[in-house]
Design brief:
The chain has 446 residues and is of the alpha+beta class. Among the domains are: 75 residues; 122 residues, Immunoglobulin-like, CATH 2.60.40; 76 residues, no CATH class. The chain contains 9 helices and 16 strands. The chain has a 4-stranded antiparallel β-sheet with strand order 9-8-11-12, with no helix packed on it. A 3-stranded parallel β-sheet has the order 2-1-3. α4 runs antiparallel to α6, α5 packs across α7 and α8 runs antiparallel to α9. It is extended, with a radius of gyration of 31 Å.
Length: 446
Amino acid sequence: MKLAWGGQVWSKGITFDIVYNAGNTERAEACAELSAELDQIDSQYHVKIVCNVVAAPWADYMAVMFDHVAPVFIVGWLADYPDADDWAEPFMNPTTGTYAAASQAITYGLNYASLNQAWSTMNVNTTTDLYPAWGPMPFTDPLGTRVTGLNNTYVTDLILAAPGQPDAIRVKIYNELMDIFYAEGGAYPLDQPIGKHFERDWIHGWIGGYSNNPVAVGDFFYQLSKLPPSVSTPIYGINLNAVSSITNTSYVPSKVAQGELIIDYKVHVTYENATGPIIVVGLSLKRTNSTGGFLFVTEKFETMSPGTSANLTLVWNETTIGTNGTWVITFVANPIATAGGEVVPTNSATLSVNSTYTVTLGNSFMGDLGGGVPPTFGKYDGLCDGKDLALFLQCYHGTAPAADMWLADLGGGVPPTFGVSHPGLPTGKDLALFLEVYHGTAPWMQ
């Protein structure tokens, strides 16, 4: 605090917020403790330090963090891979670091004197340390570079060089980076939680498997079983037949929904075995796009006895579709294990069925139907001008291509309202709404 901003904090005081994501009691307590410590400095030295603890919803929290609005925030980090690089990069790299760059905009070397002071107070034992702390400058770093100053370029180069070095050199580089991290004070590590795992004694495959790894997130259920691998596993067959019909497809622009997508799945599930335990079948719908994105929307469970069948209906109802491209709705029946043994399908190919449809996103805002010369539907230019009026009139008079007619469907109701009661084809109400956009008088444009 004495060194911050050239001593101005100590002479003038400071007021700031420390932000955490609402509902996280551990982070709330940590923020409260930090605020209490700063209050002690205030009361003892009369520095006028005011630290307010603020809880923010997760969506707002991420925004203030990455918009550089939060002066102090608290987050967690789980290594993507067990290597020092996965800590140096996000917390220290001032160019590409997840926190150092994106949310903190760290600049190294603002005050060399303070960095050297931090180094001199660390009481480094040069006999036992693998590599003594850096400084005072000038000094020679582990790569043999003569260092006369610390700045963003130097720290970035050090981080990028470390992964390709022999282990002995890497240790020295990361020790130096840790010293810089400590002295710069851009972030403050709080704790490393200890995780606990509990399981029943008849669960097999966790110990010695992927899940038994401090870097693994959650459990890798593919390796887990209720019976040891050496024990014969009973098989109970289950198959399904499914048909789907898309009852209402609508294209959805990027900001205002102009309809909804409803898919009814008619499902026939058969528990083929004549004997066996009562089982539970999990039924789920999953949507995936051409780039691999996915979304689970609905699921239900059906209890079945051997030799029985069930006729079921699952409904996908979606009011907005957020990404252009080809999407696939997948229906999956998943037989779930019971106390009688593992349930394994006799023919896994019969356990899923797909329905494919295409999503086309519309304009960046209502009224932008296209552009170009000549005016062409879909060539969105972020404007609502004469080109869009010409395209709208094509829709209004029914001369536009059928696939583009929906673009002119802006709303309905009495009085005409944007986004309300879309019939699918443009009417006089849509013309009235379009002219509001065209003249800049639409409510949402104010």
